[in-house]
Write a structure and sequence with these properties.
heterodimer; A: mainly alpha; two-stranded antiparallel ribbon; 20 helices; B: Helix Hairpins; ND/Mrp_TM (chain A); membrane (chain A)
Chain lengths: ~500, ~120
């Protein structure tokens, strides 16, 4: 079904960014526009998801070029749910940024670039054309480069060099893969590719091409041998920026993997085993890193890597239940990881540092805020009934069914290390007294109430969604069930894009 | 022509990977540029090179009767060139700033010790 609403979430953020460019150097106006734009973005995404649930997969042919010749935008359940969750995370970060980002950064265009980034994310989720996906990826990385370097502290620039080099390399791999794929099949439309790829005689060549995509998306989503750029760059930018990156950027890699490997390269035995091995190693290395890091944001960076392994494992098993686990975890992870970095930002405001050895006494000083934070931490660890608990059930169940015992062990290890690292962080940061000899510079207490609310409200918002998902798990499971049906049996996707075959 | 391009692509990818593995930041940048150019020529080559047959349908015919030069790879390359131009421009400015701050071209000097973290 053709529908023009698909591009709503993209255009809202585009126009928000343009309005903010007009209001250059007027930081108050920019903050207001950002808040309104993000809120409208959420409303439009809710409407889009509602339409997709009611009417099935929606498509839009750009300039009315018929698929497979033109660029096509497709909103299936996976895309539109991810757009909604991205918009919610974007709203939270946008509100947080209005206080959490210093004025100097705002003067140099923090807000417009942030909205270009969210626009890129929405575009990447909604496109149905593989080259267009590449272009959205480039929109995302160029915006993220600017956000990462904005402010120009030495550490930030050091992190940015590593981040930039690896991400450009990933894009080159992706582009090479697209080139070869076009050479083999003569098509760029993902639905069309999924039909044509079956007709290719030389399936070995297809396998090699899929490795280009695996490496490209692997670098972006920080999978085992390719993740080193992440922990060495995510702790450098301001927390609001790190929240966007940690919550959303690596997850686009996972989304792209889900899409490409379910539609175009259906994983064969070798790819599945490769993905399982990578998943186990990603979880192990991420856990080991999380065990030794004593800086809050470095700890969170390694936890991101660790939890990426959970999702890769689900893709590696590639059965309906495993994909349900991966997708549910993806939704949960976007919300919680964004929230974690926002929390790191609040702690920084309260104490002026993120090193655990200089932190302490936050529970004594701010008991209510601490309890809210505890809720988010519980959700990350996966304590029922919060959102982190349910996806793990699916992953455990399916890996036991398929007898992937190494992955079961890695899941247990990953969950246990997450629990340990978070418990240690809780006792160090919240329960321990302020260490002697450290005079904490508390910027949070003297703030006017309105600014405090702007810092805490986003955390509360995301925490509320986490609880909502946890308590309404039945609804979400039904949604996820339909999504993985669409991923396993792609005929409805292909039919929506190309029309009824024969 | 095809063989020449294949050799050229191989050289560009090889040189790109070699340059990226060096420790110098300028060589890293050159390596990224080589890889980008290599990928562009690869798309051009794999799109199929057809000489002297523009993709224009004769007025008297309804559809193509013959092989024709595919315009899509050129559109893709054009897009990719513009994107890599922007990324390279950004990378050059970034590396220049880093050089001014760190006063070194060596990637190994980019590790401010963890204790200085805030």
């Amino acid at each position: 079904m053709i529908d023009n609403h698909i591009l709503g979430p993209v255009f809202i953020h585009l126009f928000t960014a343009i309005l903010q460019l007009i209001a250059w150097r007027k930081t108050v106006t920019q903050r207001v526009i950002s808040g309104i734009g993000s809120f409208l973005g959420v409303l439009v995404s809710i409407r889009l998801l509602d339409k997709v649930v009611d009417n099935g997969i929606l498509t839009l042919n750009a300039s009315n070029w018929e698929a497979p010749f033109g660029i096509v935008f497709v909103a299936d359940l996976l895309s539109s749910t991810l757009v909604l969750i991205t918009s919610l995370a974007g709203l939270a970060v946008s509100l947080f940024s209005s206080t959490g980002i210093n004025r100097q950064r705002m003067l140099y265009g923090y807000f417009p670039i942030f909205h270009f980034l969210v626009m890129g994310l929405n575009g990447a989720f909604l496109t149905g054309d593989i080259f267009n996906l590449y272009v959205w990826f480039e929109v995302i990385i160029i915006s993220s480069f600017v956000l990462m370097t904005l402010g120009g502290r030495k550490q930030q620039l050091e992190g940015a060099v590593k981040y930039m080099a690896l991400n450009i390399l990933a894009s080159t791999f992706f582009l090479t893969g697209i080139g070869i794929l076009y050479g083999i099949t003569g098509s760029l439309n993902m639905a069309d590719l999924s039909q044509k790829i079956k007709l290719v005689n030389n399936q070995f060549l297809i396998g090699i091409t899929s490795t280009f995509f695996l490496i490209g998306f692997g670098i972006k989503s920080a999978v085992f041998p390719l993740y080193y750029w992440l922990p060495s760059s995510y702790h450098t930018p301001p927390s609001a920026v790190a929240a966007t990156f940690g919550g959303l950027l690596t997850k686009v890699g996972i989304y792209a993997m889900l899409r490409v490997f379910s539609l175009i390269f259906i994983p064969d035995e070798f790819t599945r085993n490769l993905l399982m091995v990578l998943a186990v190693l990603t979880i192990i290395t991420g856990s080991l890193g999380a065990l030794i890091k004593l800086n809050i944001r470095r700890l969170f960076s390694y936890l991101i890597v660790c939890h990426i392994g959970f999702m890769i494992g689900g893709i590696g098993m590639f059965t309906k239940v495993a994909l349900m686990g991966t997708i549910f975890y993806l939704f949960h992870d976007i919300l919680v990881k964004t929230n974690m970095f926002l929390i790191a930002g609040v702690i920084r405001q309260m104490r002026g540092t993120m090193e655990m050895k200089y932190l302490g006494g936050i529970y004594g000083q701010y008991p209510k805020i601490s309890l809210l934070i505890a809720l988010v931490l519980f959700s990350l660890v996966g304590i029922p009934p919060l959102s982190g608990f349910w996806p793990k059930i699916f992953l455990f169940k399916e890996s036991l069914n398929l007898e992937h015992y190494a992955f079961v062990a890695a899941l247990v290890l990953g969950s246990f290390v997450t629990l340990f690292a978070i418990a240690r962080m809780w006792s160090e940061v919240f329960w321990k007294d302020v260490p002697a000899g450290v005079d904490a510079e508390d910027k949070f207490a003297p703030m006017p109430l309105a600014r405090k609310i702007l810092l805490i409200l986003p955390i509360g918002l995301l925490a509320a969604i986490t609880i909502f998902i946890g308590l309404n798990a039945e609804v979400v499971v039904q949604l996820v069930d339909k999504i993985s049906d669409q991923l396993v049996d792609t005929s409805s996707y292909v039919e929506a894009v190309l029309g009824k075959q024969n | 022509m095809e063989l020449l391009l294949i050799i050229l692509i191989g050289l560009l990818y090889g040189a790109g990977v070699y340059m990226i593995l060096r420790r110098s930041m300028v060589k890293l940048l050159l390596g990224i540029m080589f890889l980008g150019t290599g990928a562009n020529i690869l798309i051009f080559l794999l799109g199929g090179i057809t000489k002297g047959k523009p993709p224009v349908i004769d007025e008297s015919l309804k559809m193509f009767q013959d092989n024709y030069a595919d315009p899509i790879p050129q559109a893709l390359i054009l897009t990719a060139i513009v994107i890599s131009f922007a990324l390279t421009a950004f990378a050059i400015v970034l590396l220049k700033r880093v050089y001014a701050l760190v006063d070194s071209d060596d990637l190994d000097d980019l590790n401010t010790p963890e204790e200085e973290d805030i």
